[in-house]
Amino acid sequence: MKQATRLLNYEAAPGDAYRPSAPPLYQTATFAQPSATEGGPYDYTRSGNPTRDLLQERIADLEGGGTCSTFASGMAAVAAVLRLCEVGDRVLCGDDLYGGTFRWLERCAPRAGISVQAVDLTDLEAVRVALAAGARLVLVETPTNPLQRIVDVRALAALAHDVGAWLAVDNSLLSPYLQAPLDLGADLAILSTTKHLSGHADCTGGAVTTRNDELAAQLAFHQNAEGTGLAPFEAWLLLRGMQTLGVRIEHAQRGAEQLAHWLESRPEVPRVHYAGLASHPGAALHASQARGAGSVISFSTGDAGLSRRLIEGLRLFHICVSFGSARSTISLPCAMSHASIPASVRDARGLAPDLVRISVGLEAASDLERDLARGLEGARPTSRERQLVPPRPNSADSAAESAP
Ligand SMILES: *Cc1c(COP(=O)(O)O)cnc(C)c1O
User: Fold this and answer.
1) CA dist 208 to 60, 216, 368, Å?
2) Which string of b and e fits 99-132 if b means at least 16 CB within 10 Å?
């Protein structure tokens, strides 16, 4: 069955006498028990809720099988995976990670007694050397965001398993519609459902799916013990949003392909990062492990001021963190989604302040292209501005604590 069909082939309310077509929302904290000593299938929503359970089954189905736990946000899902580690464990991670994940590894991991090593995961020899010291968990994103570097999930799974480590893939950028980490050998597939699964920027959420029963039990244990599970209403919104995941992704991806090619042809844009471009160094590897490059593109202009004027001059792209929404958004990652990474680290990782990221939505691609063309024209520095170039103080570092 194709993913597009799988998304719609489910029973909304197994066992319900009214046979509703859409999932019921069990907006309740408690469930009555048959007696003081007997329990029903549910007792308390922190521990279990039918609306959340249905969502978890739907996501596991989309991931190609396994057990899913959902959480209040993508970061809560990432944190739940890191909870699988114990004091003294080592985590090996990529060096181009989501800002919030970076912050957890930098600030929360030491408190949990976990040591972290970041390596360039595109360099398998460096990974082999780093893993020689042992590790509990290897944590990766591919394509990375916003630079869209591609890591070889199959090869990393083999290297991790050789030393007894689990491989976790944060698949938020593509969603399981386009990439199936568990089929590629990963032990854990992480998802910020805030992005494509919701698709409407109306709820936050996160999910972790695994085919390892022991890991699944530990994740469910922590979901209950720490109260980080996704609330029923957000689960219900996601069940609604997920039904259109296929058409949304297909449409947005076609738009992104068109815009990526167009941006590549523009003189103001020296570099476009999109794994669907033939010029992308990881294009072949990406094509071997995913069904498309998705709807997020980043590009540089070589001039942070021009990038800022560009994004502030557009009409159809909203200036927003996050991606995967029906409406197109645009951002400066260094000042927004990745502000929680210190400037020195951003510089070392090639995250330059002129980098622009767009998330292509469901508008007509021709309108988006026209908006960008007009924006690029309007953002050109005048000759007077070229002489002055006032450097804007970078307030991003002080914002690292509260940044998304
Ligand atoms: C957004 C995102 C997260 C965090 O998800 P939230 O729902 O914002 O907490 C984690 N990883 C990646 C790759 C993301 O894009």
Assistant:
1) 9, 9, 34
2) bbbbbbbbeebeeeebebebbebbeeeebeebbe
State in Å: Cα 280 to ligand 1 middle. 24
Greatest CA span in the chain, whole angstroms? Answer: 81
User: Taking the CB of residue 380, how many other CB atoms lie within 10 A of it?
Assistant: 13
User: For the whole prediction, is pTM greater than 0.90?
Assistant: yes
Q: Are strands 188-192 and 166-170 parallel, antiparallel or unpaired?
A: parallel
Q: Which of 391, 298, 388, 295 is nearest to 336 (CA)?
A: 298
State the Cα–Cα distance between residues 47 and 45, nearest whole angstrom: 5
- Taking residue 147's Cβ as centre, other Cβ atoms within 10 Å add up to 17
98 catalytic? Reply is yes
**Both tokens assigned to 162:** 């050789």
- Rama region for 335: left / alpha / beta (φ>0; ψ in -120 to 50; rest): alpha
pLDDT profile of the chain (404 residues), mean per 10: 94 93 97 93 97 98 97 98 98 92 96 97 96 97 94 98 98 98 98 98 98 98 98 98 98 98 96 97 98 98 95 96 96 87 84 95 98 95 59 49 75
Pairwise CA distance, residues 241 & 154, whole Å: 30
Separation in Å, CA 60 to CA 17, 57, 64:
25, 5, 6
pLDDT of residue 380: 87
Please indicate whether residue 170 is annotated as part of the active site: yes
Give nearest CA residue, ligand 1 atom 6. 74
